[in-house]
Specification:
single chain; alpha+beta; VC0802-like; 42% strand
Length: 128
């Protein structure tokens, strides 16, 4: 399973923040592959997987947007009922905890792309 780098941006919870972040990256030709945005009270957090991490980090720094980075698992599973349950069960069987996950697909697509932060990335990367 491929590993990926996730950039996590902390920001204010206000209209236009995701648009601003996306604009910063888009203007530098960085494509967002996966995105999860959450808010609580006055703060927000946006998790991103992008096609060019180094360009994204430079663009975010130039825009004075602070971020952290973490390694995670990025995988494709069949876009069928139960596919995630089967894979997550394999992780659980190996005592690997999922601490964050998000996914995207479209109806009728053959594959769904998942992003998972896990307690043992190296071990999880070997599970099929």
């Amino acid at each position: 399973m491929p590993k990926a780098k996730q950039l996590t941006i902390s920001h204010e919870n206000q209209p236009g923040m995701l648009a601003s972040i996306a604009n910063v990256l888009g203007s530098e030709k960085v494509n967002i592959l996966s995105c999860l945005t959450m808010t609580s009270g006055t703060t927000g957090t946006t998790h991103l997987v992008v096609d060019n991490v180094e360009k994204a980090k430079k663009a975010l720094a130039n825009a004075q947007l602070s971020y952290t980075e973490a390694d995670l698992l990025r995988l494709e599973l069949p876009n069928t009922p139960g596919a995630l349950a089967r894979f997550a069960s394999k992780l659980a069987h190996e005592d690997i905890n999922i601490t964050l996950g998000y996914q995207t697909s479209t109806k009728g697509a053959r594959k769904a792309t998942f992003v998972l932060a896990v307690s043992d990335l190296d071990k999880a990367a070997t599970i099929r």
